[in-house]
């Protein structure tokens, strides 16, 4: 069983991915000028979710932290 599981839906149908405690799971969902990066990791015995705002596919400034939480802080 995977520690992390992701599902995404687009014009070509759904796709899923699995992540382990060691690999984590990362996604960057974006348009040309705006997007979000989501990172799921296992740190110090708990799952941690971190969400960043990005400037999309064209790049630009560094990602901006929007949220970071665990089950204990949610």
Chain-wise SSE layout:
Elements: E1 4-10, E2 13-19, E3 25-30, E4 35-43, E5 46-54, E6 64-69
Antiparallel strand pairs: 1-2, 3-4, 4-5, 5-6
The portion of residues assigned to helices is: under 10%
The count of helical stretches stands at 0
Low-pLDDT runs? none
Globally, the shape reads flat
H/E series: EEEEEE
Number of strands: 6
Number of domains: 1
The largest sheet, given as strand count, sense and whether it forms a barrel, is:
4 strands, antiparallel
Structural class: mainly beta
The overall pLDDT average reads 93
Rg for CA atoms: 14 Å
The fraction of residues in strands falls at over 45%
Distance between the termini: 24 Å
Spatial sequence of strands, sheet with the most strands: 3-4-5-6
Structure described in brief:
This protein has strands at residues 4-10, 13-19, 25-30, 35-43, 46-54, 64-69. It is mostly beta strands.
């Amino acid at each position: 069983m995977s520690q992390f599981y992701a599902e995404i839906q687009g014009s070509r149908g759904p796709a899923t991915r699995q992540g382990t405690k060691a690999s984590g799971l990362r996604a960057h969902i974006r348009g040309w000028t705006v997007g979000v990066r989501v990172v799921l990791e296992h740190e110090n015995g708990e799952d941690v979710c971190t969400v960043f705002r990005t400037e999309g596919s064209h790049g630009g400034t560094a990602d901006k932290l929007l949220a970071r939480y665990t089950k204990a802080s949610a």
